[in-house]
Amino acid sequence: KGQYSTELYTQRMVDLISDKKAQKNPFFIYMAYQNVHAPHMVPQRYIDQYSTHIKDGQEKTFAAMVSAMDEGIGNITAALEAAGLADNTVIVFSSDNGANVGCVSHVTASNYPYRGGKRSIYEGGIRSPSFVWAGSRLAPATSNALIHVTDWLPTFWGLASLQGKLKPNNPIKTKSLDGVNQWQTISENKASERTEILLNIDPYPLSNGHKVPNYGIRWKEWKLILGSGGPPSGWYPAPRLNDLETADRTCHKPIAGLVELYNIELDPYERRNVSDRYPHLVKKLTHKLMAYNETAVPPGNTKHDPASSPKNFNHTWMPWMEDGEEVGENVRKNLWEMEEYNWVQMEVEELPDPCYQVVNNDVDL
User: Fold this and answer.
1) Dist CA 236 CA 276 (whole Å)
2) Which residue of 97, 205, 224, 301 has the fewest C-beta atoms within 10 A of its own C-beta?
């Protein structure tokens, strides 16, 4: 009580690292700071650093919270150095989503020129800033490879060389993993083995997000969105320092039934929807979504069913569905109905390679 969580978590990390210095076995620590996230709070000493050149109070607090996190990470790396572990440690810094822009009362961040932000499946919402540090094992470089959060487990597993040390019933040995080992992609800039990422399957609205179905998938350079990619759905330039009140907070309400197809390699900012030009790709990626949906766990934000009301059972919470009836059945039905859309059923002539067309300006993007 009375301690700032960032400082509390940092000290716990420093203590753990000190305890590990005498151990020979590999170890893994997952550290999830609450910075930078609401509620925006930070000790005054961090705010004082920005008292002369940031006038806006919320922006000043936001910057101070970043500084508190930065100081904590510095203390952790110093602990690794002091314990003699830094040269044999891999550090991954990452975020869970893009900046919170659009439908917020006060803008303190930006994903520009990428589209959208937190809660959306546009690139501004799903591209997370990250870096990997491994001392002399990694040369400075930038990677645009396709990497998903599920890839970290097999990557760390491979780095730690644990294959011969796991018990026979360990889930890593007995079950197939969703991810792939990306270490050669990160360290040697080799092509990623990953070719696709399921972005979302959600047929129900969110109180603070999409109001129509939200489906999305990335396959190679192509990205398909069905229903709604946001909100937020627009492009939000970074607000000028001390001029935050004029920032764009438009929600850009989505259009129900919208079909969006983007070539992310050529159009990373998602400004040119080419779904009408490549209906065969729309159909192909829709079938991929349907295949994923066949094994999906029913979403928790299901629509309210009046039949479940306790009023129907003498004001008592009771089961209300028939034996064998699945909550997820409507989810599957919604996606299968998409098969009936005209854009899926249209007959498509054999088309030249779309990338070749785009590169040679044969297609108006």
Assistant:
1) 26
2) 301
Please give the Cα distance from 173 to 158 (Å, whole number): 12
DSSP one-letter string for 22-86: T--S---------TT-SS----HHHHGGGTTT---HHHHHHHHHHHHHHHHHHHHHHHHHHTT-G
pLDDT by residue (tens digit) across 64-113? 999 999 999 999 999 999 999 998 899 999 988 988 887 666 667 788 89
Q: At what angle do helices 57-82 and 5-20 cross, to 10 degrees?
A: 10
Using CA atoms, how far apart are residues 84 and 225, in angstroms rounded to an integer? Answer: 48
- Where does 158-302 show beta strands of DSSP type E? 196-202, 214-219, 222-227, 258-263
Its pTM surpasses 0.85: no
Angle between helices 329-337 and 279-294 (to 10 degrees): 170
SS3 label, residue 89: coil
What distance in Å separates the CA atoms of residue 26 and residue 15, rounded to the nearest whole number? 17
Q: Name the token pair of 129.
A: 């800033």
pLDDT, tens only, 116-152 = 998 899 999 999 878 999 988 888 999 889 999 999 9
Token digits of residue 187? 């360290």
